Amino acid sequence: MSQIQSTPGFSVHLLDGGIAKISLSNEINSEEAMKSAFLQFVAHAVSNNVTKVLVHNHELSHHVSNHMQDWAKTSLELPLLHNGIDKIAIVLPNKREFFSLISTSDTARKKYFENESDAITWLNS
């Protein structure tokens, strides 16, 4: 695993198997900061011809609004899928109370997981 970028609240890594991983934590305390992190990540993934993406929200401990979820779908998920990403795995927040607040509909190319190891297994399948 190699770390590509790290700032308070998020880090980007390149994992074995050509997986680009973004990790978000409590330190990212605003939707604008989250949007900025995601946009940087999309640019990195597309420019490096990554085919698999892991979004790790396990340490995130605040609600993600419906507006932010909609923004992530149009500004994160769709650009990744349209630019050659085959699979997107999303690790849900550690705090169970946030599970019901996140839209978690799986598709053939996007799935939600409770832990990183299951997400990586699916990405590599």
N→C terminal distance: 19 Å
Rg over alpha carbons: 13 Å
How many H/I helical runs? Answer: 3
CATH evolutionary superfamily: STAS domain
What CATH architecture label applies? 2-Layer Sandwich
Stretches where pLDDT is under 50 for at least 5 consecutive residues are none
Task: State the assembly state of the protein chains.
Answer: single chain
Number of strands: 6
Q: What's the average pLDDT?
A: 82
In N-to-C order, the SSE pattern is EEEHEHEEH
Placed side by side, the strands forming the largest sheet appear as 1-2-3-4-5-6
CATH class: Alpha Beta
How would you characterize this protein structure?
This protein is α/β, with parallel strands linked by helices and 125 residues long. It has one domain: Transcription Regulator spoIIAA (2-Layer Sandwich). It is 34% helix and 29% strand. The chain has 3 helices and 6 strands. A 6-stranded mixed β-sheet has the order 1-2-3-4-5-6, with helices on both faces. A hairpin with a 2-residue loop joins strand 1 and strand 2. It is globular and about 35 Å long. The protein starts with a strand and ends with a helix. The model has no long low-confidence stretch (mean pLDDT 82).
Features:
125 residues; alpha/beta; Transcription Regulator spoIIAA; six-stranded mixed sheet
Topology:
Blueprint: E1 2-7, E2 10-15, E3 19-25, H1 31-47, E4 52-59, H2 66-82, E5 87-91, E6 110-113, H3 116-123
Parallel strand pairs: 3-4, 4-5, 5-6
Antiparallel strand pairs: 1-2, 2-3
Helix pairs in contact: 1-2
